[in-house]
Design brief:
It comes from Klebsiella variicola. InterPro entries: AAA+_ATPase, ABC_carbohydrate_import_ATPase, ABC_transporter-like_ATP-bd, ABC_transporter-like_CS, P-loop_NTPase. It contains 15 helices and 15 strands. It is of the alpha/beta class and 421 residues long. The protein folds into 3 domains: 127 residues, Rossmann fold (3-Layer(aba) Sandwich), CATH 3.40.50.300; 173 residues, P-loop containing nucleotide triphosphate hydrolases (Rossmann fold), CATH 3.40.50; 67 residues, no CATH class. The protein has a 6-stranded mixed β-sheet, with helices on both faces. The radius of gyration is 23 Å and the shape is globular.
Length: 421
Amino acid sequence: IGIIHQELNLIPQLTIAENIFLGREFVNRFGKIDWKQMYAEADKLLAKLNLRFNSQKLVGDLSIGDQQMVEIAKVLSFESKVIIMEEPTDALTDTETESLFRVIRELKSQGRGIVYISHRMKEIFEICDDVTVFRDGQFIAEREVASLDEDRLIEMMVGRKLEDQYPHLDKAPGAVRLKVDNLCGPGVENVTFTLRQGEILGVAGLMGAGRTELMKVLYGALPRSSGSVTLDGHEVVTRSPQDGLANGIVYISEDRKRDGLVLGMSVKENMSLTALRYFSRVGGSLKHKDEQQAVSDFIRLFNVKTPSMEQAIGLLSGGNQQKVAIARGLMTRPKVLILDEPTRGVDVGAKKEIYQLINQFKADGLSIILVSSEMPEVLGMSDRIIVMHEGHLGGEFTREQATQEVLMAAAVGKLNRVNQE
């Protein structure tokens, strides 16, 4: 039995081939590692997935999507009779997903069994024969996929009908809060946009287009080479994430495990980690009662399902981990909240709760940047949308102008920026 975990289980400092065959290295008759054979076998596995990079490349130099494909290649190397895939397409492009589905169909034709765990309805109906639904740790039902439609399956998953999947709050935004002019940095060239108070600005684009890089340059996690950022009329310089936080800019990473949470620490420690200054006395000691009260309030507000605030965050579900990550950002009392793939690896019920929280933040006047690979999510939740293409701004659209076709055209560079004047 082989398994592809939702959270990446790779060693960044090793090559792709070393990760794939870790503990199962090829050896020659002298007992030494046969690097030539190992790299050749790894390259064959990558070719099966239509991947064009060399297996001698370090895993740490790959994008999250490419790392996910390496995880898939690693499991294929075991030639298991049963393969469990947990959210395997979370970080994949449409092309990579099609390559994975082609391999799944090939494995199925060879008589292998696939357990495909996913919250993405489209994928379940495209690739699966049968579906089993679990909710809150309990078996709910098992059905043939052909006997279901999407609405019925969602109802089984969440225990209720989901009338409005993307509950957009129709409220006019206020004055301009954030102004970005000709921002440049690693993977970002001359990007200009504005963000208003109480506005949700969607950021779309293909994987590798520079969406995350733009947010990290804005926040201070990547160096800014030129351009300016103005917040509430005052120019700000963010040379580090600490500068971003100090200026009221919070970034919630797309990669919870690597950048967003400390998995060995508790829910309480993770939630209050960046806001400890609000609970500190002059001498530096913590006001623990104030910290516990604030964490308790956010657990209640965000409906975080945890036995206690002392529970290790790594033991929570993906949806509850994401709620804690967002709550930690809100604890710092930001002016601008950047959400990078906020619903990745989150079930449909938790997604709806996160969307409702986003609308609540918007109603309270918070300025929000929503970065997402899911077009319906960007279209459904945003007041205005910008599209990144190869590090540049490929388009900017009002909610009324934006359609999936328009955004995709801008994402591949076939549509010029729409004048909003």
